[in-house]
Amino acid sequence: MAFWALVVGEITLECVRQTALDARQTYKGRMTVSEFEVVGKVADFEDNVGQAVPVDGRMVAVFRKGDQWYAIDDLCPHMGASLAEGHVEDHSVTCPWHAWRFCIKDGTWEDNPRVKVDSFEVKIDGDDVLVREIPKVDAKEDENED
């Protein structure tokens, strides 16, 4: 019986991981700049605690550090855990599943800086917190412009 529960747990985990990877693939290579979206009120966000919010159809982890605000993709690229649920220390968030650490300023994986999760632009307008995607430039298009 315990073995069955373990197998079901692994299957469930694999389904969660695949869903996260599918969602990430949907947004890979998008070139449009999204509009800022209101994701909550300033008072809704605790200092040094991540919060997952939807932005343009995907989940984004928003972090408040005093008067500084940061946002990165909520899905850890390793297994799809929510980075908003991770421990925040200094300018790093640690994935709650396997302890991968990401810089909340730019999404860099701290153990391998060549790997990054997407980062997002955050602005405060009165009491509203707004987030939007940062435009990505495709390397192939850069080569064609020269």
From TrEMBL:
Q: Per the database record, which ranges form the Rieske domain?
A: 37-131
State if Metal-binding is listed as a keyword.
yes
> Which terms does the record give in the GO molecular function aspect?
2 iron, 2 sulfur cluster binding; metal ion binding; nitrite reductase [NAD(P)H] activity
Q: Which Pfam families match?
A: Rieske (PF00355)
Q: Which named protein is this?
A: Assimilatory nitrite reductase [NAD(P)H] small subunit
Give the PANTHER family listed for this entry. Answer: 3-PHENYLPROPIONATE_CINNAMIC ACID DIOXYGENASE FERREDOXIN SUBUNIT, FERREDOXIN-RELATED
Biological process per Gene Ontology, one example term = nitrate assimilation
List the EC numbers from the record.
Answer: 1.7.1.4
Q: What's in the keyword line of the UniProt record?
A: 2Fe-2S, Iron, Iron-sulfur, Metal-binding, Nitrate assimilation, Oxidoreductase
